[in-house]
């Protein structure tokens, strides 16, 4: 008996999925903080947390317990209601978007005594899921602005102001990058976009190289991570918008940041890296890769992006606020507009158009990479071999 | 306040700004992650643009100069450790140099070389600490751990030599307390030879990094003329293009026998100050290698000159200075013939360089203020004394 359409599944399965998603995401965000600390430690010739549990894996549990039991300080002249509401406003959208992330394809399983059940590795598939996703994530900005404002602290206020300007600016190139993926797949549904990458015989990273780049850079900015972590720039604004938050409310801000990182990485995977599809989804010779379930592929791809996030943090200094805005408005938005036109024209030509665009982009990108690395190597600062030049800036200045 | 505000920058000095909103007064410090101690800066900001910045110092004032007057000459040395507490050797050195000048003492060659070794190690460790904190102020967290890896070796070497890692108390009037421990020079040489490759590592992370350049080029410009007017010395002055270095200009100890260059910049901005300090690390490495060679050739010798049992300089006054990692560190000693100084005044480079901050910061953003505080390289122990 097929029970997929029964009333029970319309109520029970979504409820179960919702609980699973919330619990998993919260745990994953916690684990991610541990992974980040260990990865950074690896990059920085030190050890990182290694005391709580085997190899320190339980460190995040200890941190959560500590934060739960800490005193929750609210500044005397803060707007109490808004101060309380801000973390909620950040967390709820941060978790809600996970409803539409497609972690795997539909599958059918047999439940003993009940019958067949067809369900999927996602909570729901809305036909406008991308719009929904953009809309929900934008709501999270309110939490940051209000949190900064309600704290009655100048540093928090500056952090809130920065985040308002930054997040709104970077929403634009991000939106354009997403639109180009929509054009390629001719659908707004994340599930259909992933499936379109199978019917197109390629991941959308090929024609969407520029779009992906724009999406990921904007995504890093949206999640307030280095090199765009200005709203909480520790060395300038103490802790930015959450300066006056402590205890578990601070933990909510903190964990939501990591949840948002997962969201950005997951969407990038779905839009440009074939979601749950294995590499080269239509090459029969690689069909042994299908032994690995789609979910695992998805998680692996997301992990790669998360690693890049952490790698950024270990490498880059921070932009200044006006430079960040200039980068957004003067560089990313014009590029995204041109890119959108190119993708639209290519999409007019169907599969072939997209393939030609992909080929051009990749040849150009590899060529540019080779030229730049060659230039870099020739212009290198004279290093330890000899004494430093008399003028510290050397010949190039 | 207007007399404290420099003339650079393009912000009009009106209370009302473009949007008709009043400026915000922002209290930057004394408890702030990037003021490198208990420095307080009263900022007036228009949005994030700095209209004026007024440093308010004194939170770490300990009355050291008054304390000097109550102590005998040898007892003062440990107090000097606590001025610029990340460069104790150069502090010791400037002080003993002043007393020796008034006493007219000859220092044995070996002691001179060991003093230079200690000074240059101190310069390397201080510059490494500067690089670590300046980078972390701009959001680059990784150089911090790389430089601390090397600084740790230097501190271990100090510990090997005199038992202390930070407050060395290693020099005495007329020479040194201790000779080098056996095998110490080899350890120093091994570290120094490696140092070049390590400096390359820091440069890989920062020198050509686009964001690093964006954040530092054109920030906090203080040209040669203004540097001289403010009395700014050390890397900020050399980054402005003037090759003024006490080691060369007024040579002390054996510096005139050593071969090294004085790196200078051109643009007097934060990036040039970074390049100058990196180049100075390489020059210190050269000096250290030369000293290692000399010490290997001359393994024994006196480390203390003919010092009277009780140090009582003749009536008179003397000023002597050394090139500390931060700039010209000088002591001015007035003696009334007793066993305690009548007055001992410190010329602290951190304090004097900090005075240019309002001028350097004006018209920049709050984020740049952090870069500028970092680039001046202050230690509050020396600013407040």
Highlighted features:
heterodimer; A: two-stranded antiparallel sheet; globular; disordered C terminus; B: 385 residues; alpha+beta; Cytochrome-c3 Hydrogenase, chain B; three-stranded antiparallel beta sheet
Written overview of the protein:
The complex is a heterodimer of chains A (397) and B (385). In chain A, 63% of the residues lie in helices and 3% in strands. By secondary structure, chain A is mainly α. In chain A, a hairpin with a 3-residue loop joins strand 1 (106-111) and strand 2. Residues 382-397 of chain A have low confidence and may be disordered. With 385 residues, chain B is α+β, with helices and mostly antiparallel strands. Chain B has a single domain (64-384), classed as Cytochrome-c3 Hydrogenase, chain B, CATH 1.10.645.10. The longest helix of chain B is centred in the first third of the chain and has 29 residues, at 109-137. The model of chain B is unreliable at 1-17 (pLDDT under 50). Chains A and B meet through helix 5, helix 8, helix 10 and helix 11 of A and strand 1, helix 4, helix 5, helix 6 and helix 7 of B.
CATH superfamily of chain B: Cytochrome-c3 Hydrogenase, chain B
Which parts of chain B are unreliable, with pLDDT below 50 for 5 consecutive residues or more?
1-17
Number of strands of chain B: 8
From the alpha-carbon coordinates, what is the Rg of chain B to the nearest angstrom? 21 Å
Q: Biggest sheet of chain B, strands in spatial order?
A: 1-2-3
Oligomer: heterodimer
Number of helices of chain A: 12
CATH class of chain B: Mainly Alpha
Question: What is the makeup of the main sheet of chain A?
Answer: 2 strands, antiparallel
By DSSP, the count of extended strands of chain A is 2
Q: What proportion of the residues of chain B form beta strands (DSSP E)?
A: 5-15%
- Run of helices and strands of chain B: EEEHHHHHEEHHHHHHEEEHHHH
Structural class of chain A: mainly alpha
User: Helicity of chain A, in percent?
Assistant: 55-70%
Helix content of chain B: 40-55%
CATH architecture of chain B: Orthogonal Bundle
């Amino acid at each position: 008996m097929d029970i997929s359409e029964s009333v029970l599944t319309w109520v029970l399965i979504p409820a179960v999925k919702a609980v699973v998603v919330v619990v998993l995401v919260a745990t994953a965000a916690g684990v991610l903080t541990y992974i980040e600390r260990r990865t950074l430690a690896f990059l920085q010739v030190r050890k990182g947390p290694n005391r709580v549990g085997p190899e320190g894996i339980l460190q995040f549990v200890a941190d959560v317990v500590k934060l739960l039991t800490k005193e929750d300080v609210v500044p005397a002249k803060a707007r109490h209601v808004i101060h309380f509401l801000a973390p909620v406003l950040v967390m709820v959208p941060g978790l809600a978007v996970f409803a539409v992330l497609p972690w795997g394809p539909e599958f059918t399983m047999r439940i003993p005594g009940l019958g067949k059940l067809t369900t999927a590795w996602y909570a729901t598939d809305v036909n406008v899921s991308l719009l929904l996703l953009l809309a929900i994530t934008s709501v999270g900005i309110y939490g940051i602005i209000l949190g900064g404002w309600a704290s009655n602290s100048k540093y928090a206020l500056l952090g809130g102001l920065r985040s308002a300007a930054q997040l709104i600016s970077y929403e634009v190139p991000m939106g354009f990058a997403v639109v180009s993926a929509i054009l390629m797949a001719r659908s707004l549904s994340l599930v259909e976009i992933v499936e379109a990458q199978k019917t197109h015989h390629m991941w959308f990273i090929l024609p969407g190289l520029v779009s992906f780049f724009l999406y990921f850079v904007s995504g890093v900015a949206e999640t307030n991570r280095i090199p765009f972590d200005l709203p909480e720039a520790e060395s300038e604004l103490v802790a930015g918008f959450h300066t006056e938050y402590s205890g578990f409310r601070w933990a909510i801000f903190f964990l939501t940041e990591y949840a948002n990182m997962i969201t950005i990485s997951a969407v990038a995977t779905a839009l440009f890296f074939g979601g749950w599809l294995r590499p080269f989804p239509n090459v029969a010779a690689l069909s042994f890769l299908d032994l690995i379930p789609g979910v695992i592929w998805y998680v692996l791809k997301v992990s790669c992006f998360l690693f890049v996030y952490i790698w950024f943090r270990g490498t880059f200094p921070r932009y200044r606020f006006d430079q960040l805005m200039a980068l957004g408005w003067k560089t990313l938005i014009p590029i995204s507009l041109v890119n959108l036109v190119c993708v639209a024209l290519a999409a007019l030509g169907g599969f072939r158009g997209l393939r030609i665009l992909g080929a051009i982009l990749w040849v150009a990108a590899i060529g540019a990479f080779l030229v730049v690395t060659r230039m870099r190597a020739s212009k290198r600062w004279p290093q330890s071999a000899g004494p430093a030049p008399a003028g510290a800036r050397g010949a190039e200045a | 306040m207007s007399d404290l505000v420099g003339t650079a920058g393009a912000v009009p000095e009106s209370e009302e700004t473009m949007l008709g909103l009043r400026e915000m007064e922002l209290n930057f410090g004394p408890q702030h992650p990037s003021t490198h101690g208990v420095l307080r800066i009263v900022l007036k900001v228009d949005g994030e643009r700095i209209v004026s910045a007024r440093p308010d110092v004194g939170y770490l004032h300990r009355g050291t100069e008054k304390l000097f007057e109550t102590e005998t000459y040898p007892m003062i040395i440990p107090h000097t450790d606590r001025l610029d507490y990340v460069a104790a050797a150069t502090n010791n050195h400037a002080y003993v140099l002043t007393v020796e000048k008034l006493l007219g003492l000859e220092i044995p060659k070996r002691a001179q070389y060991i003093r230079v070794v200690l000074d240059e190690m101190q310069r390397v460790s201080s510059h490494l600490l500067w690089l670590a904190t300046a980078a972390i102020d701009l959001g680059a967290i990784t150089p911090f751990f790389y430089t601390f890896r090397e600084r740790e070796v230097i501190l271990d070497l100090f510990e090997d030599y005199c038992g202390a890692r930070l407050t060395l108390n290693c020099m005495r009037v007329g020479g040194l307390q201790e000779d080098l421990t056996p095998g110490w020079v080899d350890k120093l040489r091994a570290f120094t030879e490696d140092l070049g490759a390590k400096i390359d590592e820091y440069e890989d992370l920062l020198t050509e990094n686009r964001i690093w350049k964006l954040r530092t080029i054109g920030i906090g410009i203080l040209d040669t003329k203004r540097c001289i007017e403010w009395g700014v010395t050390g890397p900020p002055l050399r980054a402005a293009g003037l090759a003024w270095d006490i080691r060369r200009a007024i040579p002390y100890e054996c510096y005139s026998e050593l071969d090294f260059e004085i790196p200078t910049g051109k643009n007097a901005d934060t990036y040039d100050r970074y390049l100058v300090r990196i180049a100075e690390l390489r020059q210190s490495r050269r000096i250290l290698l030369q000293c290692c060679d000399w010490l290997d050739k001359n393994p024994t010798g006196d480390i203390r000159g003919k010092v009277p049992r009780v140090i009582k300089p003749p009536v008179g006054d003397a000023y002597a200075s050394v090139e500390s990692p931060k700039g010209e560190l000088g002591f001015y000693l007035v003696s009334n013939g007793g066993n305690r100084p009548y007055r001992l005044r410190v010329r602290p480079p951190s304090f004097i360089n900090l005075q240019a901050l309002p001028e350097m910061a004006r018209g920049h953003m709050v984020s740049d203020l952090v870069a500028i505080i970092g680039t001046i390289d202050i230690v509050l122990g020396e600013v407040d004394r």
